[in-house]
Structures are given as structure tokens and as C-alpha cells.
């Protein structure tokens, strides 16, 4: 409250207090972000008091609250001796001390613990991490405010110590901060002090002359408090020889030794002050360094959003119904006019009912679980700490430790209750549950994009990179080379000349079955469109049918927004090739594509135009069905004591380099698309544009001269249509093959004279030539080859692909399954177990936050799916491999039910109604068999492997729907689908075989196996 007054009426002088040195830190949550010089006006009626220690300038300072005037960034070092059991404590430590840079040594983290970083790193902080995965202990993490530009610097590895170097830019200053952990020498690690001195000398000699101010800090495990010791003397002499200064003079360990050091160049003068404080976090003390540079400002973010949750939806719908422009859209309007009116009217209405709001916010730690009880407990903790530090009494230390423990327990309980309540509120919202659990389980990546550029610069950099990548591939081709083009087959069936109009009911079904994902190009969110679908249905149907009848796709529906995403979280975000472009298209454009795709697919199936061995984007076809056929053929050949050569071809940017004119020609001449239908495809493909978008900032639009649209519905179908001649080439060479989108594999039996191997190489050469003439780049370096046989072969060790001899490997990854050269599947089972154990460990760490249903949901999503993927290939494996998988399922069941290892697992699995692993494999085999016998859309290449048993004369078995048994030469051959399918199918009761639908078959089959497994 401010009061106006005349200062002259007082007989006492007015004291103005500014920048008093005895300042205290104001709490971070108090909102203090910028250091400000606040003047305090002091007035009083009584006579001046005597000047004392607490009364200077006639002011009683006990009545004043000192404000933190921190203007320098704080660097803190701590050896945590394990982060795992101190997550909440360290999180609070960062916030309470408002740390700018926090370096933790001995984190004891492994790669599998990366999800713990979500609970450790506040929202306005980033990090750089180095784990020690193959030994106990060690590990370093650097945590820093996002307002500080930190970038990891490459540095050589050493045996005697681990370190991480980061380049730090704060305003106009550049620092190089090197964090070090040196494990103490022992007989077990074989390290010596002399080795450390040799390596550290080499290390420092390089870093001491680097540009930028240098700070080296960490746990050196050298007792520098004992200067008379020989090793200490050698170490200090080394620092002096490089003009380096060590700043810590107080003990940093509970044993009163100085082990944690801060070292700088004597000439840098970067450390303003240091303070060693024992906060009882570990047996090491914290070291606070005040840096002699200007503190960076807070991170701010510009948010643009609409309050759609509170908007008047019924009023919005009524406005749509009353809008004459929107409801007046008919087929008489041009396609462009209809889309323009649709976009403009809906955008204007949304702006009226949910205006676009822009707000600048300061990024702060997310502490929604913070409550008054925690606040009061932290106050008591601070008082207890002050009392202990003042008295130095053991009883006060114990009281402080007790209050600290109580505060940590309150924080942990509050967090647990907060997340449990969130999960409870989203109990019926699977998407919401995954969003919450992903936040708990997925690691927070320190940087998603290259550093050193503004968002606008980044968008343009990515846009240019994606465009140049395609152009550089296209420039490598010379389409004028003679003899490279293979003529396409001429279409002779029923032509597709015109797309048929669709009814409102068909459009409603398509929209209702679509996901509610939205794109920035949409005038209204998809969920809002679905809410008012009855009001918009005639309008949307008119737009779709007008596009089909006029063969026009307007420019506004041919734009894409591209998000650059890291291919893998572990890849370096500063390397552009580690990103893949993910396109987003408007909802209406994808809806039109779905209508066209349905009619185009019907045309292909009706005329048998789909490649038999192409399993991508076809009903009842999958990666597993493709693998079952390839695996069956290889196993059958090995059963006959033959060797099989398999080559996996790799294409570079396959969807992006397609020649559009060639595609249109192929659609016409080979696939029978002509007239208005071909004109629609021409309009759809030409004149497309894309913009890269990052945080709402877009790049300049780029015209797409080549390729099919990424992220579209029709893109994959058009790619498989473009590559249909590939199957002709492989058939012409009489080679077995299979394709899944742009993944192509060829396999053939080979012998000692290499006759078939030469045929394989000739086929690959023809494929290379065809792809070159059709602007597809075969990546020779990423092409893989393997020879399958019963025993290790030395006859073949490479396959010629172009000008490159591809060395054969002992295993390959084929559509997600690891196939080794002897098909023992040990490596694949081991990979499944490793992946499942990884997820079980993470889910187990947050199990106390989850209820049973949510835990079961996560287990099914991350663990059971891994056990079931392509498990039909596991039929006939040795029992010890099946047992490894069963142990994973048992562990998952125990996590769900919270039962210990001593309890028998069978009743637990039965209560969960889970089939054991061996029955799940048989379940998959029989499901594939049922589909082959009853579903006309099931893969023809699997139907060819099984045959109904038809006896020559009437027998009782004639009506049992038996399959003809397949004979094998060895036990190994029984793992092929052609053997396993009749073997398991013929064991089933007739009532199950005669199930009227696939769903009833699965239900009956599971009940049958459940009763067998648990003797019920």
C-alpha cells in the first residue's frame, strides 16, 4: 500500500536503503526472477535511536526483510553417491537454491534409468548426461537453465578418469566447463596414480590452451588437504606448471578431506567466490561457486492458444447452421470456392467463440503437487538448518536431519497422490493415461534441435536440408542411359475412368472412424468438427464429391507442414541427417484421399493388380505374414540340407524421389487409371508445397517437384503402384522375393558352384538399373546379405551389389525380427527379453503410482506386444528359449499383481487370464490358419502353403475340416508354417474350426487353450 506524505514534517532524516550487503535469498517460488535495486523509504515519528550493530543510519534493520540481489550465476558441484534414491531431494535442491548450473558426479545411472531424469530435471532446465553402463558407480550429469546456451564438446576418453566437457555461453561470455570423476585406484580396477597423472597431463595440455575461460571441477579423490604427501605434491605441481589455480581449501567430505576441487586458469578470474556447504545429501559436501559474469535472464515462451474447453459449443453449432455462406455451398460452386468458404467461415466463427490468445510466460518448474504442508515443513527445515549451523551441536544436526527427511517424505507422498489423482481422473481415457505415464517413463531430452540458431533460422535450415537431400539424389541419375528402362505390361482389364460420388452416410462413417488429430492447416480442431458433424456433413460431402467430379485438388489442400523429428533419441541433434521429416496434412485433404484410396484399392483387387508378394497397405497382410512366408521357405530349404542366400535391399528417401510423370504413366498403362480419375491424380500430385514448422514458426514454402506426399493416405499406395515392375524383374530371374513398402528382400538356394548366386547378383544388377532409370536410389552400403544353413559355411562370404561386395553377416534384422545364420533364434529371443526387461524395470519403478488396470494397460502395450510380435516364428524352438520368454511373462504378472517370487505363478497367470507363451504361439498359428481358410483377403502366399485334406473315399474324417499333413526330413523342418499349421489345426475340436467369425474363433480358441493350460 502506498501513502502520500510530506517528508518535511518529520524531524528525523529519511533513510534510503539500497544494495545492502547482508542480503538473504528470496524463495524461488516467490517469483523473484530479475535482480532489481529496490529503494526502501524509512520514516518514523519518534526520535532517532542510538546507532548499534543492528541500528545504523537511525534504522532498525531487524524490521527490514533483505532482498536477494543476486546478479551472478551460481555453479554447484556435488558428488551424490547415487541419484536414484535422492531424486526428490535433488529436484528440490535445484529449485530452492536457484542453481544456474548443477554438476553431479557419481550419479550411478545406466541408460535404462533415463526416465528418472523426468523426475530430476525441472521444466526450465536442460541437461547433458554421461552414464557408466558397464561398471558400477561413476556417471556425470550437467544440469543447466535453458536460458544458458550449453553445448557438449567432443573430448578424448581416458582410462583413469571419466569426464564431460561443455561449452557454456552466458550473455557475451564463453566458458568451457569440464566435470571430472576419478575413481580411486584399487586392485579390482587396475588403476594407478601414475596413470592418472600421465593422462591428466595430456588432457590439461590440450585444454589449457583452448579459447574461452576454463573451469575444471569434480571429485578427484586426491587429498589436497595433505600437501606433504608425494602424490598431492605431484598433482599441485602439475597444476602450477599449466598456470592453473585450485580454489577449494575446506574439507568436502565427511572424513574431513578435500576431494572435490574447482580449478581455473589464474588469468581467467572467473570464480568470484566459493562456499562449501554440508546439506546432508551424501558423504560429500556441496560446493557453490559464484561466477564473475552477468546472470542470464529467465526463459520465456510465447504461447498462442484458444480456450476451446470453455467455449459455447452449442452456440458455435447454431452459428454454423445459420451461416448462409457455409450452408450455401453446393456442387455448383467450384472446388476452390467451396474450400475457401469452408476455411474462412469456420475460422471466423472459431475466432468469435474461442479467440486466439497470445501470452508470454516465464518457464517455471512444474510443482502442481506443492501444498501448504510442504511449505510449512520446508520452513521448519530451514530454521533447523540455521540453528545447527550456528550451534554446531550434534543434537541440532539430528533435528535438522529429521526435519529434512520428513520434508522429503511429504514431497514424495504429494507427488504420488498427484499422479494417482491424474490417473484416476483419466481412468476411462486411454490416451490421457498414456500421456501421463509417458511423462513418467520417457526421458527428457536436453536438446531436440541443433543449437546456435533462432527458431526461424532452424525452420529454414531444415527446409533447405530436406529439399537439397532429394535434389542431390535426383542429380545422381542420368535417365538418358540406353537399355535401362524396362517396358511396363499393358493393362487389359476394366478401366478406372471416374471416381464415384459418395453419400453422406459413407462420409460420416469415415469421419467417425478417423482419429481426432488436428493440424495447424485445419480451420477448426477435428474433435470440434466431429461434435458438429451433423451440421457440417452436407458441406463436407459436397466438397468431397466436387473434388471427385471435377478432378481438382485445390492448392490449399496440397500444402503440408513438416515437423523434423530425431530418428532415435540417442542421436546427435546437431547433425541434420539424424532427423526425418514428418508431414501433417489438413483433415479434409486426408478425407478426400481416403475416399479415393477405397475406390482405387477396390479397382486393384478387382483386376488382380496387386503384387502377390507385396504385403504393405493391404487388408489382412502384415509384416508378420510376410515373415512367416520367408521364414517358411528358408526353413524348408535348410530341412533339405540346402543353403539359402538372402539379400535385404535398402532405398534412400524412396518416397521423395519418385518421378511424378512416370507414376502417372504407370497408373495409366499398367494399372488402368484413365480419364477423370487420372486427371484427379495429376491434380493431386502436381503443385504441392511444404513448410517446416517448429514451435509455431514456419519456414518459407518449398515446391515439391518429386515424390509422393509424406504422411498422406495415398502416398504408400502410389509408391507400391510405382514399384510394381520390381516383382516382374525378380520373377524373370526366377527368384523368391518379398516386399513390404520400400523394403525388398530376395532369397535363393545356392550351392558350391555358385550358379544361383550369380543369378541373384544378376537380378540385383537389373534391379539397380531399373531403379536408376526410375529415380530410386539403391543404397549399396546399407544393403545386407546372409547365408542360412545348418552349419557354418566358408564357401560364400560376399554378394556383389553394384560395384560393392557386400560382406555376409551372421545375423540380419528383417522387419523387426533378428534372423541368425542357423535360424536358432537365440539372438532374437535375447533381444525380446532385453527389451521386455527394460520396460518392466521402468514400469516397476512407478508401480506405486499406478492402479492394477493402468499397470496392465502399460504391460500389454510395452511387454506383451513384444512377446506376441511375430511369435508364430517361434514355433518348435527348444524349450529353454521358450522358458526365457515365459520368465518375462511371469515377471510381468508379478508386477501387475504385486506378488513376490515365492508365490506360485500358475494361479496368478490364470487370474489374469493369460495364456502361457507356448499356447500363445499355437494361438497365433491357428489364427493365421483360420484366416487363410475363411477370409478371401488373407495373403495368397500363405494359402499356398496349406491344403484341406480330402480323402479318396468317404471317411468319418471327411467332415472334420482337417488339413493335409506336411512331411519333413528333420525335426528342424517342423518349424515351418507348412508343417505347424496342419499340425496344430488338426488338434482342434470341430466346433472351434466351424466358428462363424474370426472374433468368435479367437474367443473359442482362447477358452480351449486356457482350459488345457490350467486343467480346467
Automatic annotation (TrEMBL):
Residues 546-819 form the Reverse transcriptase domain. Pfam families: Exo_endo_phos, RVT_1. InterPro entries: DNA/RNA_pol_sf (IPR043502), Endo/exonu/phosph_ase_sf (IPR036691), Endo/exonuclease/phosphatase (IPR005135), RT_dom (IPR000477). One of its GO terms (molecular function) is catalytic activity. PANTHER family: ENDO/EXONUCLEASE/PHOSPHATASE DOMAIN-CONTAINING PROTEIN, ENDONUCLEASE_EXONUCLEASE_PHOSPHATASE DOMAIN-CONTAINING PROTEIN. This is Reverse transcriptase domain-containing protein. It comes from Patella caerulea (Rayed Mediterranean limpet).
Amino acid at each position: 500500500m502506498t501513502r502520500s506524505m510530506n517528508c518535511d514534517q518529520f524531524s528525523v532524516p529519511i533513510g534510503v536503503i539500497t544494495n545492502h550487503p547482508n542480503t538473504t535469498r528470496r524463495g524461488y517460488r516467490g517469483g523473484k526472477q530479475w535482480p532489481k535495486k529496490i529503494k526502501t523509504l524509512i520514516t518514523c515519528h519518534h526520535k532517532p535511536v542510538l546507532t548499534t550493530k543492528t541500528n545504523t543510519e537511525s534504522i532498525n534493520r531487524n524490521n527490514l526483510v533483505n532482498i536477494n540481489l543476486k546478479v551472478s550465476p551460481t555453479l554447484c558441484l556435488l558428488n551424490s553417491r547415487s541419484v536414484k534414491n535422492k531424486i526428490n531431494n535433488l529436484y528440490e535442491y535445484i529449485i530452492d537454491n536457484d542453481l544456474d548450473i548443477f554438476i553431479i558426479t557419481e550419479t550411478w545411472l545406466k541408460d535404462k534409468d533415463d526416465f528418472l531424469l523426468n523426475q530430476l530435471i525441472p521444466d526450465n532446465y536442460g541437461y547433458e548426461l554421461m552414464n557408466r553402463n558397464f561398471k558400477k558407480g561413476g556417471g556425470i550429469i550437467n544440469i543447466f537453465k535453458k536460458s544458458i546456451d550449453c553445448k557438449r564438446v567432443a573430448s578424448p576418453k581416458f582410462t583413469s578418469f571419466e569426464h564431460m566437457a561443455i561449452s557454456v555461453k552466458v550473455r557475451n561470455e564463453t566458458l568451457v566447463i569440464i566435470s571430472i570423476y576419478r575413481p580411486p585406484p584399487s586392485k579390482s580396477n587396475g588403476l594407478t596414480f601414475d596413470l592418472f597423472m600421465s593422462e591428466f597431463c595430456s588432457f590439461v595440455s590440450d585444454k589449457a590452451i583452448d579459447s574461452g575461460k576454463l573451469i575444471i571441477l569434480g571429485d578427484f579423490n586426491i587429498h589436497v588437504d595433505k600437501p606433504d604427501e608425494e602424490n598431492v605434491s605431484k598433482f599441485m605441481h602439475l597444476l602450477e606448471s599449466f598456470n592453473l589455480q585450485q580454489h577449494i581449501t575446506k574439507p568436502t567430505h565427511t572424513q574431513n578431506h578435500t576431494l572435490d576441487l574447482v580449478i581455473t586458469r589464474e588469468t581467467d578470474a572467473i570464480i568470484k567466490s566459493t562456499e562449501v556447504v554440508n546439506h546432508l545429501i551424501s558423504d560429500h559436501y556441496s560446493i557453490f561457486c559464484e561466477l564473475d559474469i552477468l546472470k542470464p535472464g529467465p526463459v520465456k515462451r510465447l504461447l498462442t492458444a484458444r480456450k476451446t474447453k470453455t467455449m459455447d459449443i452449442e452456440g458455435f453449432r447454431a452459428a454454423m447452421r445459420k451461416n448462409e455462406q457455409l450452408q450455401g455451398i453446393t456442387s455448383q460452386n467450384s472446388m476452390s470456392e467451396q474450400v475457401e468458404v469452408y476455411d474462412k467461415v469456420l475460422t471466423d466463427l472459431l475466432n468469435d467463440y474461442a479467440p486466439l490468445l497470445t501470452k508470454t510466460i516465464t518457464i517455471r518448474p512444474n510443482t502442481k503437487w506443492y501444498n501448504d504442508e510442504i511449505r510449512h515443513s520446508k520452513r521448519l527445515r530451514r530454521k533447523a538448518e540455521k540453528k545447527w549451523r550456528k550451534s554446531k551441536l550434534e543434537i541440532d544436526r539430528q533435528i535438522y536431519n529429521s526435519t529434512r527427511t520428513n520434508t522429503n517424505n511429504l514431497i514424495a507422498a504429494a507427488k504420488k497422490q498427484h499422479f494417482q489423482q491424474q490417473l484416476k481422473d483419466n481412468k476411462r481415457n486411454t490416451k490421457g493415461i498414456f500421456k501421463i505415464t509417458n511423462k513418467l517413463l520417457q526421458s527428457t531430452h536436453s536438446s531436440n534441435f541443433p543449437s546456435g540458431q533462432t527458431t526461424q533460422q532452424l525452420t529454414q535450415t531444415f527446409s533447405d536440408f530436406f529439399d537439397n537431400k532429394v535434389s542431390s539424389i535426383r542429380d545422381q541419375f542420368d535417365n538418358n542411359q540406353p537399355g535401362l528402362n524396362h517396358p511396363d505390361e499393358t493393362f487389359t482389364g476394366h478401366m478406372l475412368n471416374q471416381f464415384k460420388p459418395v453419400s453422406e452416410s459413407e462420409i460420416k462413417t469415415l469421419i467417425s472412424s478417423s482419429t481426432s488429430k488436428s493440424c495447424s492447416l485445419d480451420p477448426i480442431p477435428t474433435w470440434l468438427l466431429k461434435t458438429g458433424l451433423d451440421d457440417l456433413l452436407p458441406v463436407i460431402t459436397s466438397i468431397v464429391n466436387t473434388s471427385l467430379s471435377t478432378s481438382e485438388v485445390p492448392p490449399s489442400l496440397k500444402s503440408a507442414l513438416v515437423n523434423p523429428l530425431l530418428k532415435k533419441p540417442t542421436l546427435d541433434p546437431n547433425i541434420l541427417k539424424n532427423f526425418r521429416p514428418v508431414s501433417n496434412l489438413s483433415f479434409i485433404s486426408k478425407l478426400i484421399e481416403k475416399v479415393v484410396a477405397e475406390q482405387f484399392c477396390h479397382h486393384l483387387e478387382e483386376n488382380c493388380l496387386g503384387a502377390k508378394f507385396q504385403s504393405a497397405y493391404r487388408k489382412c497382410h502384415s509384416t508378420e505374414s510376410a515373415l512367416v512366408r520367408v521364414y517358411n521357405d528358408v526353413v524348408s530349404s535348410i530341412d533339405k540340407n540346402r543353403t539359402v542366400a538372402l539379400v535385404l535391399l535398402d532405398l534412400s528417401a524412396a518416397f521423395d524421389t519418385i518421378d511424378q510423370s512416370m507414376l502417372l504413366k504407370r497408373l495409366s498403362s499398367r494399372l488402368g487409371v484413365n480419364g477423370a480419375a487420372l486427371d484427379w491424380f495429376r491434380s493431386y500430385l502436381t503443385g504441392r508445397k511444404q513448410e517446416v514448422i517448429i514451435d509455431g514458426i514456419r519456414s518459407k514454402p518449398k515446391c515439391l517437384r518429386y515424390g509422393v506426399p509424406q504422411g498422406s493416405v495415398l502416398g504408400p499406395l502410389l509408391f507400391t503402384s510405382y514399384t510394381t515392375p520390381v516383382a516382374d524383374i525378380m520373377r524373370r530371374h526366377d527368384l523368391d522375393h518379398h516386399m513390404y513398402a520400400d523394403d525388398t528382400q530376395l532369397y535363393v538356394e545356392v550351392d558350391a558352384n555358385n550358379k544361383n548366386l550369380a543369378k541373384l547378383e544378376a537380378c540385383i544388377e537389373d534391379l539397380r538399373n531399373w531403379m536408376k532409370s526410375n529415380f530410386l536410389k539403391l543404397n549399396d552400403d546399407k544393403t545386407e546379405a546372409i547365408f542360412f544353413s545348418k552349419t557354418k559355411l566358408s564357401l560364400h562370404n560376399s554378394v556383389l551389389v553394384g560395384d560393392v561386395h557386400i560382406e555376409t553377416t551372421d545375423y540380419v534384422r528383417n522387419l523387426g525380427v533378428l534372423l541368425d545364420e542357423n535360424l536358432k533364434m537365440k539372438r532374437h529371443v535375447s533381444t525380446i527379453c532385453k527389451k521386455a526387461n527394460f520396460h518392466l524395470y521402468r514400469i516397476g519403478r512407478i508401480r506405486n503410482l499406478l492402479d492394477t488396470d493402468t499397470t496392465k494397460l502399460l504391460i500389454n502395450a510395452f511387454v506383451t506386444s513384444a512377446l506376441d510380435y511375430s511369435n508364430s516364428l517361434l514355433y518348435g524352438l527348444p524349450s529353454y528359449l521358450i522358458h526365457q520368454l515365459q520368465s518375462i511373462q511371469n515377471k510381468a504378472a508379478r508386477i501387475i499383481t504385486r506378488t513376490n517370487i515365492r508365490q506360485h505363478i500358475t494361479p496368478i497367470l490364470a487370474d489374469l487370464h493369460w495364456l502361457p507363451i507356448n499356447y500363445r504361439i499355437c494361438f497365433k498359428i491357428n489364427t493365421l490358419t483360420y484366416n487363410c481358410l475363411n477370409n478371401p483377403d488373407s495373403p495368397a502366399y500363405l494359402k499356398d502353403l496349406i491344403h484341406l485334406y480330402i480323402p479318396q473315399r468317404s471317411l468319418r474324417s471327411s467332415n472334420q475340416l482337417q488339413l493335409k499333413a506336411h512331411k519333413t526330413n528333420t525335426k528342424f523342418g517342423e518349424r515351418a508354417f507348412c508343417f505347424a499349421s496342419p499340425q496344430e489345426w488338426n488338434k482342434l475340436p470341430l466346433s472351434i474350426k466351424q466358428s462363424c467369425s474370426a472374433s468368435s474363433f479367437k474367443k473359442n480358441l482362447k477358452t480351449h487353450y486356457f482350459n488345457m493350460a490350467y486343467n480346467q
